[in-house]
Write a structure and sequence with these properties.
This protein is of the alpha/beta class and about 230 residues long. The protein contains six helices and seven strands; from the N terminus they run E-H-E-H-E-H-E-H-E-H-E-H-E. The chain has one domain: Rossmann fold (3-Layer(aba) Sandwich). The chain is about 40% helix and about 15% strand. The relative contact order is 0.14. The structure holds NADP nicotinamide-adenine-dinucleotide phosphate.
Amino acid sequence: MESILVTGANRGLGLEWCRQYAAAGWRVYATCRYPETATELRALAGRHASISLHRLDVTLGEHCAALRAELGDSPIDVLVNNAGVYLEKYAPDGAIRYDDWLLTLQVNTLGAVRVTEALARNVARSRRRLVVAVSSHMGSIADISAPGSYYYRSSKAALNAAMKGLALAYRPLGIGVLILHPGWVKTRMGGWEEAPLTAEQSVSGMRRLVEAYTPQMSGSFLRYDGTPLPW
Ligand SMILES: NC(=O)c1ccc[n+]([C@@H]2O[C@H](COP(=O)([O-])OP(=O)(O)OC[C@H]3O[C@@H](n4cnc5c(N)ncnc54)[C@H](OP(=O)(O)O)[C@@H]3O)[C@@H](O)[C@H]2O)c1
């Protein structure tokens, strides 16, 4: 049975990754900060015996180590680094709060690398051997045409740089890395009114890219529909 591990699986895009892959018959390792209160994820797991819940705050090295120990030698075909924050959204006065910037980097950049490093051995033991970094077009420096969103933009630009480097580091292990922009999606982060895409549409597109993946694509930065994005 093929397997996927998703971070930030309790809501939004993370929950949808779990929903679609469980429906497709995959083994799903759903990770989130608070499994005991993850109501929707628990309901989904109640309908699919192939889903297991695991505690993972991506900023905590001890959580990564515990998860790695729990997984043992289990293969992970696709590791989805989905967890993310966009803290400027909740501080619209434009003032820069450096603690929030640091937290954004800890989650969006260091968190994704920490989880990937901890679980690379499991990915290497699988058939597909693929790491997905859920980034954003806002991590594209070429995309910047207005001020603002400094924490989020810099965290995703740094994520892109780190994942591009990991793609090279992992090539000898046969592990590939895809850096994906999910589109503007109706979630708590994307907003429910203006965002044009549903989580179902976005994840369906990203799943098609996972299916189409070949090693030549490793290190590329793509929109959910496969369009290449500028760095
Ligand atoms: N929606 C969009 O339009 C859009 C566009 C571009 C990129 N993205 C990216 O897509 C990804 C998913 O976003 P979303 O729209 O689904 O947002 P969301 O609904 O706000 O969900 C964010 C998820 O990240 C989790 N998370 C936050 N901090 C964490 C931590 N320290 N450890 C583990 N999990 C943590 C949250 O868990 P809690 O519930 O515990 O906080 C939640 O599950 C993010 O990386 C985001 O940057 C989204």
